[in-house]
Sequence to fold (502 residues):
Amino acid sequence: MQQEQTKKGGFTSGIGFVLAAAGSAVGLGNLWAFPFKTAENGGAAFVFLYVACVLFIGAITMICEMFIGKRAQANPVTAFKGISKKIGWVGLLAIAVPTIICIYYSVLGGYTVRFTANSFAGNANNFAAFAGSGWPVILFTALFLAFALVVVMAGVKGGIEKASKVLMPALFVLLVAVVIFVLCLGEGVSDGLKFFLVPDFSKVTFGSVLAAMGQAFYSLSLGMGTMIVYGSYTGKEINMLKSTAMICIFDTVVALLAGLAIFPSVFHFAAKAGIPPDNLKLEGMMLMFETLPKVFESIGFIGNIIEFLFFAMVVIAAVTSVISIMEVSSQFIIQKYGISRKKATACIAAILFVLSIPVGYSIGFKLNGTGKMTVFGLDWLSFLDTVTNTVLMPVCALLACVAVGWIMGPKRALAEMEEHGVRFHRFGKVVAFMLRFVVPVLIAVIEVFGVIDLVFPMGSFNLNGLGIVLVAYGILGILIGAYFLFYHKTETGTNADELLKP
Ligand code: PHE
Fold:
């Protein structure tokens, strides 16, 4: 049955699956969050910490999520129901989290498309003006969503796998090309490398540990349904252990390369222009859309070429992530409601597009300092990002581990994993112990400290933070309610409903 399904419409090869999952994992998180967090938290010391988190927490959670999908060969709701009917709502959460993320991620994706298209005309010094320009933002968001839509519409085998097999190697080649060029810039390069990587253990605090864990989850797309969904499209021939290792390595290498591309070029620019690098914005959206265009464009025409290659690479990273996000909700709608893939994906993309419009406006207002359109003191992007990544994502990842480690129980989980080709050999007991005790406790720590930091930033009470937390848990409550009202007793479909349709 599994084999039949993969032939009909799931991933057809191990490498196709790995590249698609790596496509989901590699995204803006690698390119603009990892490098800065590393520089800020002790360079190579943080990299060690991060790799440890990926190895001991991320990889185990990833295997768990893939396994949940693979054993069910179905969407997350059916998959969690298959473990226990009482926890089917975790599946709804796993669908809701990436869908909410998609609303703001698409706006950023739209920016990346526009920055690629504009590389030769010049992007420097007009970020705020573009972000606040209204229609162009909406247009580029639509364009970006359309790229993802075309791929998801064509299905897992004919769209996602095919696209990933072309796009992921292309991304890697582009990134390596940019890194090589940047490392040859000369002046300032070694300072950039020092800033990024020189280990400084004195900067590693409890906060760095939390940052490393949170970053590992976000970057590996854990707690967001995507690994469950992609896992569900794999058959017996795919080695989950090897695939997980490859995805984790690829994701980490891309994050490191991103740092090697970004900091040396920024420091080169700073040295030439005589600006202290600290005066440049080195983080997140501002790094990507304000500082880097200035840096590249200061190099002249070759700089424009590098800018183009760099942003094309960012578009690929973002689009392959959004593809995986869109597949999560599409799969559920297709399977639960028997709607065709084309209709389901088109409707989802249309809804996401409409919802992304106010997000685009809100970011524009923020960047132009008007203070309009905020929710609990944040622009819409930061609000949605906090609701999902700080509050809901850890809950979802934690429950995936609990579902396997506690509800299925270690004996059954290990035996079933073995049936699915995951053999831990002598390490079975260690893995089971990690899965039951270590990983859930650490994820719970991320959740608790994340929430405390929202409600009591710097130790004093913050009403807006409390508001955000309440909204997030309110969404969770609504999902639980919706599950017991609509999905608990009814069939919620499996992959066979789409893939084995006559
Ligand atoms: N992992 C992606 C990144 O690093 C983001 C992502 C979020 C992907 C949600 C899929 C789902 O940017």
Residues 24-25, 27-30, 98, 101, 218-219, 221, 224, 226, 321, 324-325 surround phenylalanine (CB under 6 Å).
